[in-house]
Design brief:
heterodimer; A: about 325 residues; alpha/beta; Rossmann fold; 14 strands; B: 5-stranded mixed sheet; 7 strands
């Protein structure tokens, strides 16, 4: 049973953030950011480590007090003590690097955290949702990283929250375990849950999110759907001809953007509008026609690179 | 309350599933009891005699008094132990030292000016402190009187008179093991309380469990109550196991009264409170555990767990007075073994006061939200 929410203002905005800031002494962690999150959407807060993602999320979770600005969650003010208890009843949280209690089983952990709320969902249904039926009676400490994270997801959902915060839910997981977590988040999306996701993985945001805000140095530098961001800031598509070698360059038509040779023989050609057809026709009768050819669409990685001049590594560090 | 119950239940399950925790809370204290019981024995020798010679010239016993002690020694009837002359409460000293070494609690005091009185007035007296319930008291008094008369006669051909005044005392007819068992209970409450709080708060913070709980409707007070409830459970289990073991293996009889309960409640608040204070100052779990070791081990040894504080050097005795465990240990002994309600009450009140102070300090310092 989901708890009744206040009548939400605006376009069903479950999170409203206006000019929010947080300082630690002279260090500005969050610098006057504003954004909103609509009911039923998966929102990704994307940025490298130290950008201000977790600080923002923890303000919204009522774990930290903001230094300035305002933030409302489900129309309750995060700065008001009386509103904080209402927020806590209605949100679900998976903190970054969360671990449940080692020596309790999966089911016992879900029941443990469920008992903190007045209402809780059936633990077995949650276990089914996160696909942990076979591990139901295993102690948490025996589970792999991916399975532990799925327990964390079940725990975050135990009060049937109106809004779920997932702080870096796949950090440190292997690719398969990451995919498994994505699968659970997709299920939540299908159920109409509103999800606030923080991540430094560009592909994760692109794959899961309806809306993305990119944060860097405590400021939001771009917001929109993944496609909007890529179209606006991702740059040109790229034609890649695999293993063409330096000799392959001479078969390319004149007047195209300057091709680059990468990975010891792959040719990369930035594409202007309409250029793709001309190039393909031009190389159709040359040895390049027998090579592996692909068109690479820009990603959020390219968006971040174009906007900041830096890339984000697998570990979330900027380079 | 259901949240508090859930927390207690989870702690208990976790405890029950951890073999090492069970060892430290239950098996280790029993092991200590067996070891110390075997080392110090459980017998009750009844021919020991403590002697305090206050008849000094400077810091040296006078020849007369020294001769008197030699005469006692020569009978071969006594195992003489000396009480330092400057000891202001020799009866109390004897009580503790005798208990530690499983000796009979009998004290002979040779007063100051014993020799001088004897030579100038021809009369002197010594005092023998005996418990009437001591089966050897009558014969001992007889032997001492006879030795005393014989010594006086030897000193001079004239008539010298040394009287032996018997002072009745009530001794604690207890053995070392009776003394030790409440100490082990105190030690167990100390370690499980401090380490429980340090480990739970330190580790749960590292695992982000506390952060997760802080995003739920659970309050900090409920969390702390859950921890205290768990400590109460551990205390009850530990006490039951230790007392049953003491009863069946060493025949120790202990009384559980209102003071015992008060002291257990105090310990269940006091030691987690200390642990929470430590966990606050040393944020990472390993560091906090090291700090807990640094606090608990000296406290365990200095607070009269293994031997009476009375038998320790003066500096350590002063330190012991500032250690919370001292009051728990003393209170438990007064309540469970010695049946001295007035002293048990004093210790219980002090322990509860300290418990209130530390649990409130720990609660205030414990960070529930992020800074």
């Amino acid at each position: 049973m989901t708890l009744p929410s206040r009548a939400l203002s605006g376009r069903d905005e479950v999170v409203q953030v206006n000019n929010l800031s947080k300082k630690y002494g002279d260090t500005v962690a969050v610098n006057g950011i504003s954004f909103g999150l609509s009911k039923g959407e998966v929102f990704a807060f994307l940025g490298p480590n130290g950008a201000g993602k977790t600080t923002t999320v923890e303000i919204l979770e009522c774990l930290r007090a903001p230094t300035g600005g305002e933030a409302k969650v489900l129309d309750y003010d995060v700065s008001k003590r009386s509103d904080q208890s209402e927020i806590r009843k209605r949100i679900g949280v998976l903190p970054q690097d969360f671990n449940a209690i080692d020596r309790l089983t999966v089911r016992e952990n879900i029941d443990y955290f469920g008992a903190m709320y007045d209402h809780q969902l059936d633990a077995d249904k949650l276990i089914e949702l996160v696909d942990l039926k076979e591990k139901r009676d295993e102690q948490f400490k025996t589970l792999s990283g991916g399975l532990k994270q799925r327990v964390g997801l079940a725990v975050a959902l135990v009060n049937d929250p109106a809004l779920v915060f997932l702080d870096e839910p796949t950090t440190g997981l292997d690719p398969r375990a990451r995919r498994d977590v994505w699968y659970v988040i997709e299920r939540l999306k299908k159920q109409g849950k509103t999800v606030f996701l923080t991540t430094h993985y560009m592909d994760e945001a692109e794959y899961l999110a309806d809306t993305v805000s990119i944060i860097d140095h405590g400021q939001i530098i771009a917001s929109g759907t993944p496609n909007e961001l890529i179209d606006a800031h991702g740059g040109k598509k790229t034609l890649v001809i695999r293993e063409a070698g330096e000799d392959g360059l001479k078969f390319l038509p004149q007047g195209i953007s300057k091709p680059q040779l990468k990975n010891e023989g792959d040719i990369y050609i930035p594409l202007n509008n309409g250029e793709l057809t001309n190039i393909l026709i031009a190389i159709g009768q040359t040895p390049l026609a027998n090579k592996e050819i692909e068109v690479r669409r820009p990603t959020l990685d390219d968006v971040f690179l174009n906007m900041t001049g830096r890339r984000v590594s697998e570990e979330g560090e900027v380079a | 309350m259901s949240r508090v119950y859930t927390i207690v239940k989870a702690h208990v399950k976790t405890w029950f599933r951890s073999k090492s925790t069970i060892f430290w809370t239950l098996a280790f204290p029993l092991l200590l009891i067996v070891l110390f019981g075997a080392i110090f024995g459980t017998g009750n020798t009844r021919f020991d005699l403590y002697v305090q010679n206050q008849d000094l010239t400077g810091s040296t016993p006078t020849l007369t008094s020294q001769g008197y002690v030699s005469a006692l020694n020569h009978t071969g009837a006594f195992n003489v132990q000396f009480v330092p002359a400057e000891m202001s409460n020799p009866v109390s000293y004897v009580r503790d030292d005798a208990q530690l070494h499983n000796r009979g609690q009998r004290l002979l005091v040779i007063p100051a000016f014993f020799g001088e009185n004897l030579t100038t007035t021809g009369k002197a007296s010594v005092q023998i402190f005996l418990d009437q319930s001591d089966q050897a008291s009558a014969s001992l008094f007889g032997v001492i009187s006879a030795v005393t008369s014989s010594y006086a006669a030897k000193l001079s051909n004239s008539t010298l008179y040394v009287s032996v005044q018997q002072v009745p005392i009530v001794t604690r007819n207890t053995r070392y093991i009776d003394f030790f068992i409440p100490g082990v209970i105190g030690m167990t409450l100390l370690t499980s309380g401090v380490f429980g709080a340090v480990n739970t708060n330190g580790r749960y913070r590292e695992l982000k469990i506390i952060k997760k709980l802080a995003t739920t409707p659970l309050s900090k007070i409920e969390w702390i109550l859950g921890m205290v409830g768990y400590q109460m459970f551990l205390a009850v289990i530990s006490i039951a196991v230790i007392l049953l073991f003491g009863r069946f293996v060493f025949g120790v009889t202990a009384t559980i009264d209102i003071y015992t309960i008060g002291l257990v409640v105090a310990a269940a608040l006091l030691f987690p409170g200390i642990g929470m204070v430590l966990a606050n100052f040393v944020k990472d779990a390993d560091g906090a555990e090291a700090a807990a070791n640094a606090i608990t081990f000296p406290m365990m040894f200095l607070a009269g767990t293994f031997w009476p504080t009375e038998t320790m050097p003066t500096v350590l005795k002063v330190i012991a007075n500032y250690l919370p465990l001292t009051y728990i240990n003393n209170g438990l002994r007064d309540a469970m073994i010695y049946l001295e309600p007035a002293q048990a009450l004093t210790n219980t009140v002090i322990a509860l006061g300290l418990a209130g102070f530390f649990i409130i300090l720990g609660s205030v310092l414990m960070s529930w939200k992020e800074e």
